[in-house]
Structures are given as structure tokens and as C-alpha cells.
Amino acid sequence: MNLAYRDIRHNLGRFLLTCVGLGLLLGVVLAMIGIYRGIVVDALTIARAPAVDLWIVEANTRGPFAEASRIPGDIREGIARIAGVSSAGSITYQTVETERRGGKLRLYVIGYEPARPGGPPKIVEGRGIARSRYEMVADRTTGLALGERIQLGRSVLTVVGLTRHQVNSGGDPAVYITLPDAQKLQFDLAPPAARVLLARGSAGASRDTVNAVVARLHPNASPDSVAETVRRWKHLSAITQAEQERILSQSLVDRARRQIGMFTTLLLIVSAVIIALIIYTMTMEKLKQIATLKLIGAPDRTIIGMIVQQALALGLIGFAIGATLIANIMGYFPRRVVLEADNILALGLVVIAVCLLSSGLGVRAALRADPATALGG
Amino acid sequence: MAVDDTSHPLIRVQGISKHFGEGETRVDALRNVSLDVHPGQVVALRGPSGSGKTTLLNVIGCILDPSSGSMELDGERVLEGGRWIRTDLRRLRLDKIGFIFQFHNLIPFLDATDNIALVLQLAGAEVGDARARAINLLDYLEVGHRRSAMPAKLSGGEAQRVAIARALANRPRIILADEPTAALDSKRAGIVMDLLRKVAVERDAAIVAVTHDEKIFDRFDHIFSLRDGALDHTGDA
Question: Which of A304, A367, A375 to probe by mutation at the B interface, max B CB count within 10 Å?
Fold first, then answer.
């Protein structure tokens, strides 16, 4: 006879309500883990999108994400000719705010050269940029629709394709435009300022400036040795893809990552305390019944089994409710929530461990229960 | 009630003492108590509060260690010189002793049948056998029609009958009852006492009940009166 199951069945409503409460708490823990992972993944997404091996940036900077970087656009041709480089592309990054349907729309604008490295990794709807100007591929989270026209600076661009999961480390959705459009947006002065510059006689300066040049290498080329070659040009720095990812995950989002990590740890501790209290309370409520069981001769293993089974049932049902809840609502979070099987499995194992440890408190109370207390009123 | 007092007693308590604390805080709960209860006897332990009735019942029920004395249960020496000879006292209780409580103490999440079947299963019975025997016991105590009822749905008298059935489940020859009629009215108290008498006679069992209920004193073969931890008076009802 399974006493744990019988007790749960007898108090099913209360038990399920407790499970739902615990499930909501574990759902929050899962959401925090997902947000934590999402921040790291988001930070790396833009850097991984071009699928390159090397980032060439301004000397003595760790650009273009961690620090500002400006280099001449014609650097790309020189980089493409280095032994080991298979292709190279110029790229710009900037954050802009524009108006859309009476509201503000914040965008992370990536300028690239179509047919060279630096463009969107995958078009999920529509097509890639085919014209040299005034076309845009936008991330779905911008809310922009195919064919929609949007003003960026003094240009109006048409959305021709949609991509997904392309956001920067701050969570701003990315849009891809051609390098000339991006350079115009980033480096062209407004007409009054341009007129002042013209009056000073310095308006002829080239605007062919980019934030970085990205390069893909031949399969047998070493990123480190190519980077070393690039660094011989004193006005340039070269960062391998691995270094770029390290900069992003350890430097750029480090504080946010640690903050959420600490908060997640605190939530886990709170969950553990709550699970322990629930199980302890459940046991204390049954102390007279436990004393009766001991008096009539039930062995300790029967009583321990009842408490541990109920603790595990509570934890696992709560966890299943939390995981189901988060799996169904994670798409509605403003920032990406990334839950991978190993995260869910790890939290599941933590919940089982917490339940087993927590049931220790209840088991201790049960084993201390004096069978004599079953006698008398 | 005619009982063969020459038979070997089912309960033999010899020189049991129990004290709590030491020095100035020492309280003597039992002082050199000896008594025999024979098969078929229904005996009462009476006395004012703090006289040691429940302490004696706890010692006989093997749930309290006495300070000194010896005890025999169902022909087995279980206590000698204040030390338990048997180490598995829980198993001893499961096999040899049935308990009846003042407020029945049925497990609230098990129905009447399973409250009894649980005790049988703890003793090693198969599920089917345990349930069949539980139903037989409920029929024997005339509450078979309530076999599927949860304890909260049983009346006081029904619940106490189920509790008696549970106490009888493993066919113990020693039944210990703590105020078995205190929660019942006179009529139901009489019915419960009749049942205990029936059990004692038909199963050749010894029943020891702690009671304050003067209405039922005439239903006992012997009444042991306790005062300040010592047997004050022993006599027939």
C-alpha cells in the first residue's frame, strides 16, 4: 500500500495547489536561467552572424562591440589579399532610434557589403538585399513587415526580408542595410553642419569609413598567424573570432550576466527553503498519524518512504508545471529566453536534490515522533 | 465473569518502576507495580490524573522504557531488570499487541478497509489477503457496510469499531485500550465494551483498558486502581 499516494489522493486539491505554487516559483527560476543564457547568446549572436574567423579593427581597440573603432573602408582590399584570407567584407554597427506608427523604434543597424561576409545569416521570409541602396533586412522582433518603408536618418528604406534571433547585447533588434546606406547614416552630416564644413573648405573628406573588416580564412590557415600579419600594420588590430566571443561574454555583458546569475542563485536558495518548509509542514501535520503508525508497528522505512515520495512528487510535479509554463510563455518575453535541454535537466536534478535534502528535515521530525503521543487525547 | 486464573497469564508485570528526572526533580511515575492479566480477562486501570495509568499502559505496550522490573507478554520474556530483551519492539507490538485509542486514531487518508489492511500488510500479508481479512473483521464487528467509508465519514461508534478491528488485525492476544469509550455516549460505550468482551472470550485475549468512565466499571473482570504510581487497590468489578 503506497501511503504517499493515498495521502496525496486524499488531499489532492491542496497538494495540486501547492504544486502549482511551487511550479510558478520554479518557472521564475527557469525564466531567470533562460534570460541569463539569452543574454550570453544574444551577445554572441551578432558576432557569430557573419561566420568569420578574424575581425580587423582600429589599432589599440577591442572593437567594434566593446569599444568604438573606425578604419578606412579600403582596408578591406588589403586584407583580402593577405595569404590565408578567402574573403573579407567591410562592416558598420550603430544604434539608431526612428519613428514608427507614432512610437519610437530602437534598431541596431548593421551595414555590410552584399556578396561579402557580414550579412544576415538566414532569411526566414522575403529575400536578401539585391539592390545597392535603400533596401533592408530586419529581425522579426522589430515588428517590421515585408514591404514596409522606414526612415533611417535622411533615407527611406524598404524591408525586403526578415531574419530572426538577430539582436545586439542590449537586446535591440538588428536590421541589415548596405554599406553605402549605413555610411551615409553614420557619417553624413546634417545639411546645416555640412554647409559649415563646406565653408571651412574641408568638405571633401572621404566618408568611406567602416567600424571593422571581417575576414574568412581558408580552412588550413591559422587565425592567429593571419592576425599577427595584420597587426604589423600599426594602425590596425586583429581579433580572432574566439577572442571576440570572449570579449563579448566576459567583458561586455559580464555585469548583467553576473547580476542575473546571482539573482538566479538567490531564487534557487529561496526555492530550496520554500520546498523544505512545505515538506516539513506536510510532515508536522501528520505527526499524530506517524506516531500512530509507529505505535502499531510500522517500520521506519515505511514512514521515511512516505515522506520522501511525497517530497519528490511535489518537486517533480512543481518542476513540470514550471517548465511547461515557461516553455509556453518564453516567446512573449521582450528579450530572448534560451532554455536548452541541459539547463532544464540540470534544474530538474537540483530540484530532486533539494527535495531529498528538504525531506531530511521532515524525516528527522518523523523519526523523533514519540509513539506514546498517539495515546491520549 | 468466570475466568481461569490458574492459566498462564498473557501479561505478567513484576516490580515495574519508572521515574522521570533525578534528585529534587525526580518524579516516581510507577512504584513497584506487579499484576497479571489472564486470557479472556478484561481489566481496567483506573486512578486520578497523574496516578501512572498511562505510564503503565505505555510500559506494557513496549513504548516506554521502565527504570526497573520485568515483564512477560504472551509467554515471552520481553523485559528483565528494566532492560528490554527483545530489540525489535515495533515488530513485537505489530505481532502481539493491538491498540485501541480514545479518538480511534484511524489514518484519515485510508478508508475503513485499508486502515485494517495496512496493519496486515505491515506484518507481511499480501494485498488481496489483507483486504479480504480486513473485510471479514469489519463484518465481525458489524461495520462491514462501511468498508469503503473514509474515517471522517464514520460516526464515533463506527470509527471505534473500525479501530477495534484494526487492533485485532494481526490476531494479537493482548489488547491495550486508552479510554476506549471516552468519546462515546453511554449506549455506544456499552456496545464497545460488549465487543471487547466478545473479543476477549472468543479469541482468548487479554484486554487492558485505561478508563475514567464509571458507567462501564461493572463490565470489567478486575479493576486495578493506581495512586501516586503504586497499585492502591485490586479488586473485582
Answer: A375
